[in-house]
Specification:
With 495 residues, the chain is an alpha/beta fold. 26% of the residues lie in helices and 15% in strands. Helix 2 (54-69) links the parallel strand 1 (44-49) and strand 2 (81-84). Helix 4 (101-107) crosses helix 6.
């Protein structure tokens, strides 16, 4: 067990800063500088990327308790300010960080640093201050735990294709620190018309690209004290929960599974699903434009489309809500015929959520959310889209379970419809739209995955076998250091 440290407030009120770096007098000042007299906790703004779903609100409260336990002896005027994105900013793209940067530049001008992290991150504030004091806030610094691509990947638009390992981007789970000079500079130029940001796929990589600014900005500075799964006594941050434990998994009968397919892939793909994860439940159906009794498949009268599949998806949802045999089922999963998923792990995850709430769960992407606040988020379909019964009921009863066209993107259409209904989607880092090799090895090591997508240039049977392995270190929702704390459519289709 890692002992909880209640930090002496005298130590936190003033930590002597490192020697001032010389300032280039030829460079004009864009904004007033903070006085480098020292660094206190009150000089750091803490921002947690959070979600409004009831389970995630509880997780945010656990973060808050762990945080406040460490500053309880500080005078009120010396305590740092803590913000949760779901409470403090009505920005649909807050999870991307980018639309928050102008807010920081406007509202946090008196602060030396902004430190951002996730609701499952845990901090040792005294050690974090020991890290920050080494860097001059009047210079542009972007601090974090570095992730690197193993190969050029579609989720990063094949950036740095000649040497993908050369570009470092942060793991939000370990936290990132933005110096005042950096968040003021980037915040004043964002939104940047020269940056294309229609789709938000991987916010941490896209943030690093914006800060790099085509070579005119700064690179991520890797800080070994910002940690995830690799905790050691020097860590100022860590990510203790690889996968949530909310009690026993839901019953197999309480999760209905629908696989979207077409005649073209009955043999090539459906056979692999049936050989691998499809055999892990008896409540699975295959939906196609062609009825094939050998599988068997179900036709809903929707013609096959080359992309989009909105008509088929909405018909599946309406059928699930209408048919009597599903009336006691609380959860529904729609997967592609080249999705690879661990259903037992999914049922374990669903124990954390209330099916009486309208829950649409999976890996969240965004469309037009990084620059403007009029876009929307959506659950990207390849990694699996999960619906509570109430989420489907809200669509159907409000007349939103239809499509502009059968080949409209189903996941994006669902995102737009749920936004109309003012229903926030739920992001889970355990779902993955791409293949295992498309993600940083360290990112996957910190979170136990439950799904991947695509059979292209990989062995889906081997991916399934790896998914079914039990992680060596099964973490629960009990923190390691506190017994009191609970542990365009064409472009889109290719992602």
């Amino acid at each position: 067990m890692i002992p909880v440290k209640l930090i002496p407030w005298i130590f936190l009120i003033s930590i002597v800063a490192a020697a001032d770096d010389p300032v280039d007098e030829k460079e004009p000042e864009k904004f007033a500088k903070v006085k480098p007299k020292g660094l206190s906790l009150k000089d750091v703004r803490f921002v947690v990327i959070s979600q409004p779903n009831s389970y995630h609100r509880k997780r945010s409260l656990e973060f808050k308790k762990h945080f406040e336990d460490q500053i309880m002896h500080l005078p009120e005027g010396e305590k740092p300010k803590l913000y949760f994105t779901h409470e403090h900013w009505d920005l649909v793209g807050a999870f991307t960080v980018l639309p928050l940067l102008p807010v920081f530049a406007k509202d946090f001008q008196d602060s030396s640093w902004v430190f951002m992290c996730e609701e499952e991150t845990r901090l040792d504030l005294s050690k974090l201050m020991e890290v920050l004091v080494k860097y001059e806030p009047n210079k542009e610094y972007f601090l974090g735990k570095a992730l690197r691509d193993r190969e050029a990947t579609i989720i990063h638009h094949f950036a740095h294709a000649n040497n993908p390992h050369s570009f470092a981007f942060p793991d939000f789970g370990a936290g990132i620190a933005l110096s005042r000079a950096l968040f003021m500079s980037v915040g004043q130029r964002w939104p940047d018309d020269s940056v294309r940001s229609d789709f938000t796929i991987d916010p941490k990589h896209e943030l690093a690209m914006v800060i790099k600014n085509g070579g005119k900005g700064v690179d991520l500075t890797e800080v070994p004290e910002l940690c995830t799964f690799n905790y050691n006594e020097k860590c100022a941050s860590w990510y203790p929960m690889k996968f949530p434990d909310c009690g026993p998994e839901i019953s197999e009968d309480n999760l209905a599974v629908g696989v979207k397919t077409c005649e073209k892939f009955h043999e090539e793909r459906v056979s692999i699903v049936k050989e691998t994860w499809g055999k892990d439940t008896k409540n699975i159906e295959y939906f196609s434009e062609k009825e094939d009794p050998s599988i068997p498949t179900i036709s809903l009268g929707i013609p096959n489309t080359e992309r989009g599949h909105c008509g088929k998806t909405m018909a599946m949802l309406r059928r699930w809500l209408k048919e009597k045999k599903f009336e006691k089922v609380s959860w529904f999963l729609i997967a592609d015929d080249d999705t690879i998923i661990n259903l037992k792990r999914l049922r374990k995850l669903l124990a954390c959520y209330d099916p009486k709430e309208p829950v649409h769960l999976g890996e969240v992407y965004g469309y037009s959310v990084a620059k403007k606040n009029w876009g929307y988020t959506y659950i990207t379909g390849g990694g699996g889209m999960v619906f509570s019964r109430e989420a489907i009921n809200q669509l159907v009863t409000n007349g939103e379970a239809d499509c502009h066209a059968d080949d409209s993107p189903d996941d994006m259409t669902l995102g737009m419809r749920y936004k109309r209904l003012d229903i926030s989607l739920v992001h889970s880092p355990y779902f993955h739209q791409a293949r295992p090799m498309d993600y940083s090895a360290d990112f996957l090591a910190a979170r136990t995955p439950l799904s991947f997508h695509k059979h292209w240039m990989c062995d889906p049977r081997a991916v399934y076998a790896d998914l079914m392995k039990e992680p060596e270190d099964t973490d629960t929702q009990t923190d390691k250091d506190s017994s009191s704390t609970e542990r365009t459519a064409e472009e889109h289709e290719e992602l």
